[in-house]
Amino acid sequence: MADVPQILGACDARFAPVRDAVAQNFRMHGELGSAVAIAVDGHLVVDIHAGWMDGARTRPWRPDTLVDVFSVGKAMAALCVLILVERGRIDLEAPVARYWPEFATHGKGDVTVRMLLCHRAGLPGIRRALADEDIYDWDAMTGALAAEEPWWEPGSTHGYHVNTLGFLAGELVRRVSGHGLGAFFRQEVAGPLGADFQFGVGADQDARIAEYVFSADLSSADPRAASPDDERRLLLNSVYLNPPGLSGIGTVNTRAWRAAEIPSANGHATAHGVARIYSALLGGLLVPGTLERATAEESAGVDFVLGRPSRLGLGFQLTQRERP
After folding, report:
1. 0.90 cut: is pTM over it?
2. For each of the chain's 324 residues, which pLDDT tens digit applies?
3. 71 in catalytic set
4. Which of 56, 61, 167, 190 qualifies as a FRET site for 301, CA 20 to 30 Å off?
5. What is the C-alpha separation between 191 and 183, in angstroms, rounded?
6. Are 191 and 273 in contact (CB under 8 A)?
């Protein structure tokens, strides 16, 4: 049982169990450092933080501490696409190739924007072994995805596009708006809302980025070691580890990772920043009809990639009975 550090910040009395849960995370589960922010009707009712920003426990967690929020970035990438849908710049039912002609190879000409956002495009990974540095090269990653043959018939089933959805959605945004995802998100979402959430973080921000400490049993196995006749293993290694640092293992704390735009995995934010954006979503950032469509069930059942049930809307993972 570990000691519980001082929990700082404000917590409405109605949400005292949240503070208790944070303490329990430190006491029973070895938490290093964390922050929690919750907004109700646009008002923060929880904004607390505790612990340390580094494994050596030399830097206390602060209200403005940035942390890699990994898959929260997929929702932000989808949000950018949906903003362009609302403006009539992107049609959900149009082929992706209308906006990104190179995407049409290997039978992907009929893959629609809707299929892409609800993880039915069949592109969760890249078969061809990529170089370590390709992870930081937007054109290399999106070019490889455009040239990739789908892992299943697009539209026939769904599979979590763990690390590719951000590149796919981001390239759509770039082709249509003329701006990279990081710039578009900053201009249209984070900037106007004053939300501390970034894709591509400058070195001047390093002092406030928390070190990410992986469990000791995780290793960065090389996907190129997969046997070509072991299709399932090839799929999973391609999804998570091609290039090898794609999921952040061994890369997440580097300057190169922080500077790049890897939208499915390397958005950096404060808890307050994430809460501000989701609160704005509920408060009219998207018109009610768009938000309703985005959070309606598009994909459900056993996930081709995860091998367990998942439930997805247009870029947003939805709650389900198995994972309330």
Report:
1. yes
2. 778 999 999 999 999 999 999 999 999 999 999 999 999 999 999 999 999 999 999 999 999 999 999 999 999 999 999 999 999 999 999 999 999 999 999 999 999 999 999 999 999 999 999 999 999 999 999 999 999 999 999 999 999 999 999 999 999 999 999 999 999 999 999 999 999 999 999 999 999 999 999 876 654 444 445 455 588 999 999 999 999 999 999 999 999 999 999 999 999 999 999 999 999 999 999 998 999 999 999 999 999 999 999 999 999 999 988 777
3. yes
4. 167
5. 10
6. no
Burial class (CB in 10 A: 0-12, 13-18, 19+), 317: middle
Q: Which two tokens stand for residue 35?
A: 């922050």
Domains belonging to the chain, first-starting first, are: 69-196+213-264+278-287 (3.40.710.10)
Sheet with strand 33-40: strands edge to edge: 8-11, 43-51, 33-40
Contact assessment for residue 249 and residue 266, using Cβ atoms and an 8 Å cutoff: no
From the candidates 34, 71, 215, 220, give the one annotated as an active-site residue: 71
The count of residues in the chain is 324
